[in-house]
């Protein structure tokens, strides 16, 4: 695994209606960063947070639109382009995607 592992979190400042009481998208993003760097200190990660209502990268707009259209609960976590969790992502699922 010499390449960086891309971990993306698509979310918004406003907590999704069905996710009230759970961490915000930003809190989830920060929690994932800390957990993954602690568990895999020898791996190189590229962490990206994408605000679904303020997408700065046109390549991410299509997926952000899918999230805005309620195809996914946010925050949505992707590892190397594959959805591994949404709403309240499970750390074990993220670990499994990295260890493949």
TrEMBL record:
Pfam families: DUF1462
Superkingdom assignment: Bacteria
Transmembrane segments: none
SUPFAM superfamilies reported for this sequence: Thioredoxin-like
InterPro entries: DUF1462, Thioredoxin-like_sf, YuzD-like_sp
Descriptive protein name: Disulfide oxidoreductase
């Amino acid at each position: 695994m010499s390449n960086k592992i891309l971990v993306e979190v698509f979310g918004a400042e406003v907590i999704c209606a069905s996710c009230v009481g759970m961490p915000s998208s930003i809190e989830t993003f920060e929690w994932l960063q800390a957990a993954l760097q602690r568990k895999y200190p020898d791996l190189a990660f590229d962490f990206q947070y994408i605000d679904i209502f303020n997408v700065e990268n046109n390549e991410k707009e299509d997926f952000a639109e899918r999230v805005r259209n309620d195809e996914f609960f946010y925050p949505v976590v992707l590892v190397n382009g594959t959805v591994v969790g949404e709403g309240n992502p499970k750390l074990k699922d993220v670990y499994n995607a990295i260890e493949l």
